[in-house]
Amino acid sequence: MEHKFDVQVVLSAFQKIRDNGEQTEDGFKLEGVEAISSIDGYSLVLKDERTTLYLNFHNTYHFDTDTQEHADALMRQIEEIDQHF
Questions:
Q1: Is the whole-model pTM more than 0.85?
Q2: pLDDT tens string 35-70
Q3: Is 51 left (phi over 0), alpha (psi -120 to 50) or beta?
């Protein structure tokens, strides 16, 4: 499975989730997407119920998902958060 996206959109959405979301045990959640950062801030996680996106130092990334459709759905949610908040 190949996933391509604009890292700036993901980073922007991550910050908007932190600014506008509800605090969870691990991070913040907005519109079904949870945003979590490592203590040092070099690793970010954005996830929904079916897919986890790990964004690491130097913009390397990994999706943990069963299907391309689930990854695409998470990316659509992230893009909507970036556009509407």
A1: yes
A2: 999 999 899 999 999 999 999 988 899 999 999 999
A3: beta
Domain ranges for the chain: 7-67
Q: What are residue 62's DSSP bridge partners? A: 54
Instruction: Name the one residue in this structure whose structure tokens are 């070099």.
Output: 42
At residue 31's C-alpha, the angle toward residues 28 and 33, to 5°, is 55
Contact status, residue 62 vs residue 51, Cβ threshold 8 Å: no
**Residue 58, both tokens:** 């130097």
Backbone angles phi, psi at 37, to 5 degrees: -125, 155
Structure-block tokens of residue 12:
């922007």
Average pLDDT of the residues of the chain: 94
d(CA 28, CA 17): 6
